[in-house]
Specification:
Layout (H helix, E strand, L loop, with lengths): L8 H5 L21 E2 L14 E12 L2 E10 L4 E8 L6 E2 L6 E2 L10 E10 L2 E10 L2 E9 L5 E3 L8 E6 L8 E7 L10 E6 L6 E7 L9 E4 L4 E3 L2 E12 L2 E11 L7 E4 L10 H4 L7 E9 L4 E8 L3 E8 H10 L2
This protein binds beta-D-mannopyranose.
């Protein structure tokens, strides 16, 4: 349940204090289950000297503060992963050079480009999962790290074409579990969320369909967002959904609850979206009309949740919610 502070032996020995996650109270008059940070965006497109844009990025608790893996597209429009650190989760130092992964296997085709990273603590280390560009085609890249300095590249989870791989933060009935979205090599005009299981994070099987688009706001395709959050009522999943308007794609996001033991089974799924592009920084940018949730920090003792989302494929933004209210909202709006 506690995703905010991995309880490693070394963390206990070092008496690391769990940092407070970013937070702002719900604004007066707001009746929505989720509200935006009033100083969005928190990371601007030119955060790096070489960046064309910084967006769709993941943050986790790390030591006394936070670490993140950021999507930064450079000025030749190559998509890179960069590591960053923060004391408060709001103001970030992002390394100017992309992450260089290491591997003991000389036969493993090296990671070169990738995007939309998620970061997940499982048992004793952090796993990074992203859309990897392998010989020009998208598939699911995986790596692990303990220190956000050395990233160990693992075998790619699937053949092309696949995107939006998201790991569950613990084994379920002994198996690692991943959500993903089979796709094509372009701006895919379809997409459902599938669940796969693995005994070792290398060989994946037991593929099951979880959800297909249902409502008009998500009618073109859907894909998992942040690492699912375990609640007594099921795994709380935020996911993006895409509508194809006469002016192109519109990316919103919604929420569902998945069964705790068999997470390919949907317990409840809200019909309305949770957030849709509605601020100028979500409407205007490289790709207009995109809100794309990638990470969620949770503070179980306060029920607080801070959601990192990319806006308009240009900047990183924050939104807030109470976990229990979101769960109630999903059930009430299913
Ligand atoms: C998807 C991915 C995301 C992006 C979105 C909207 O296919 O490329 O990174 O945010 O399109 O452009």
């Amino acid at each position: 349940m506690d995703q905010t502070m991995p309880k490693t032996e070394s963390a206990e020995k070092m008496q690391i204090q769990t940092p407070k996650i970013p937070w702002q109270d719900r604004p007066a008059g707001c009746v929505d289950p989720l509200w935006r940070y009033d100083a969005n965006p928190i990371i601007h497109r030119d955060a790096l000297p070489t960046s064309h844009g910084v967006f769709n990025s993941a943050a986790v608790v790390f030591g006394n503060g936070f670490a993140g893996v950021f999507r930064a597209d450079d000025k030749s429009r190559r998509q890179h992963l960069h590591v960053g650190f923060s004391k408060d989760g709001l103001s970030w130092d992002i390394e100017p050079d992309p992450i260089r992964m290491v591997s003991d296997d000389p036969d493993l085709p090296p990671h070169e480009m990738g995007y939309d990273p998620r970061v997940c603590w499982i048992e004793d280390r952090y796993y990074v999962i992203w859309c990897d560009i392998y010989e020009r085609y998208p598939t699911i890249g995986l790596a692990w790290t303990r220190d956000f300095r050395r990233f160990h590249q693992m075998e790619r989870a699937f053949l092309p074409f696949n995107r939006n791989g998201v790991l569950f933060p613990r084994r379920i009935n002994g198996m690692y579990v991943m959500l993903s979205r089979p796709s094509d090599g372009g701006h895919t005009a379809f997409g459902d969320i599938y669940c796969s299981r693995s005994p070792d994070l290398r060989y994946w099987g037991d593929h099951r369909l979880v959800m297909k688009p249902q409502q008009p706001w998500e009618t073109t395709k859907i894909g998992a967002g942040p690492v699912p959050i375990e609640t007594p009522e099921g795994w709380l999943l935020l996911y993006h959904g895409v509508l194809c308007s006469c002016n192109g794609f519109v990316y919103s996001f919604g929420a569902a609850l998945l069964d705790r033991d068999e997470p390919w089974k949907v317990v409840a799924r809200a019909k309305p979206y949770l957030m849709t592009p509605a601020r100028s920084y979500e409407h205007v940018g490289d790709v207009p009309n995109v809100v794309f949730p990638v990470a969620a920090l949770v503070e179980p003792q306060t029920d607080r949740m801070a959601i990192y989302y990319g806006a308009a494929d240009t900047v990183v933004c924050l939104a807030f919610a109470h976990v229990s209210e979101l769960v109630d909202w999903v059930k009430a709006n299913a």
